[in-house]
Specification:
Elements (H helix, E strand, L loop, with lengths): L2 H14 L8 H13 L2 E6 L25 H4 L2 H6 L1 H17 L4 H12 L2 E6 L5 H4 L6 E2 L2 E8 L6 E3 L18 E5 L8 H13 L2 E5 L11 H7 L3 E6 L11 E5 L2 H13 L11
Parallel strand pairs: 1-2, 1-7, 2-3, 7-8, 8-9
Antiparallel strand pairs: 4-5, 4-6
Helix pairs in contact: 1-6, 2-10, 6-10, 8-9
Bound molecules: ligand BV8 and zinc ion (ZN).
């Protein structure tokens, strides 16, 4: 969907967004005020923003056949070396679920937000492509993309999961090594440039909007607190604040991302002209 389409589509929702999250008005107003005044907003997302699109979060218990496996145990190079076809099948199922999913109101509200703030950086821990499909440009996908597979020998070959078999890890057409999901597994280093860009934006931003993450997986998990320690306002959006940090520079907005984000973006920018899009 072209950005201006998703923007226009969402702009219509500004007035219509009256299903309210239960966030205290003052917290929402504080957050909206910070966004309105912001020069540079970092948006940081975890699995919670895609949950309402039907993409299971990492902590959702695995269903059916997969219930006996712990996601953390499957998402490792050792698991792939031990059982390539089992790991490949798990990713094929997850990649198909992402293909069938659609961006939700939370993704679209962020795309609208990007049209209003002078500078924005989107950092995602998610491996789905829903931000891009909602019109967001250049997301820093710290943990890779489940839409593709790459050569495990690093020869550079890359294929779409949609074009690959579902339960047998294929061999690279270029060098015959096994193909593997194009994601970062536990125990693997993140792409140094992506991480450096994410850290630089975290240090430069004046508002850090952290959405739908349990803040467990490092090094991404520390980004919100690095932002706070450098004077940014950290807005936390999560369906539950259990286990989430609080503090003087942290604004907690408890609720579903698909309800809170449209409300927040409406409060922050209604009456403002976007920097681009049909109504600019
Ligand atoms: C690294 C891709 C250096 C794969 C992912 C021992 C050995 C080696 C490393 C470690 C070790 N011990 C610790 C580490 C570091 C390790 C780590 O952090 N482990 C954790 C478990 C403690 N990190 C790494 O290994 C990283 N690399 O450190 O390299 C190194 C190298 C070698 C040796 C040492 C160090 C690599 C980490 C990347 C892992 N790959 N994904 C795949 O997807 O299959 S991470 C994966 O889990 C996801 O991508 C995601 O990032 C993460 C889960 O986090 P969340 O997104 O937060 O999701 P979660 O389900 O947890 O929470 C959802 C949240 O949403 C909840 O809060 C919920 O309340 C909320 N929510 C739900 N619905 C909604 C909602 N909120 C709002 N609205 C809703 N509707
Ligand atoms: Zn190869």
């Amino acid at each position: 969907m072209a950005r201006s389409d998703s923007f226009r589509l969402h702009a219509k929702r500004f007035a219509a967004t009256n299903r309210g999250p239960s966030v205290p008005v003052n917290a929402m107003e504080t957050a909206a005020k910070a966004l309105r005044a912001a020069e540079h907003v970092c948006v940081f997302t975890g699995a919670g923003i895609s949950a309402e699109s039907g993409v299971p979060t990492f902590r959702d218990a695995q269903s059916g056949l997969w219930s006996k496996y712990n996601a953390h145990e499957l998402a490792t190079p050792e698991a792939f070396a031990r059982s390539p076809n089992l790991v490949w099948s798990w990713y094929s199922i997850r990649a198909a679920a992402v293909r069938d999913a659609r961006p939700n109101e939370g993704h679209l509200a962020l795309t609208t937000l990007f049209a209003y703030v002078p500078h924005s950086t989107l950092i995602t821990q998610n491996v789905d492509d829903l931000h891009a499909r909602a019109g967001a440009e250049h997301p820093l996908a710290l943990h890779g993309n489940i839409t593709h597979a790459r050569c495990s020998a690093g020869c550079g070959a890359r294929i779409a999961f949609a074009d690959a078999p579902t339960n047998v890890a294929p061999h690279c057409g270029n060098c015959t090594a096994l193909m593997r999901p194009d994601v970062v597994w536990f125990g693997e280093m993140l792409d140094a440039d992506l991480l450096e860009n994410a850290r630089a934006a975290t240090l430069a931003c004046d508002v850090f909007l952290s959405i739908g993450t349990s803040n467990v997986v490092e090094p991404a998990a520390s980004l919100p607190w690095i932002a706070a320690s450098h004077g940014a306002t950290v807005i936390v959006v999560n369906k539950s604040m259990q286990g989430q940090r609080s503090g003087p520079s942290i604004v907690q907005l408890e609720g579903m991302a698909g309800a809170v984000l449209p409300k927040l973006v409406t409060m922050a920018f209604q009456g403002r002209k976007p920097r681009y899009g049909e109504d600019s």
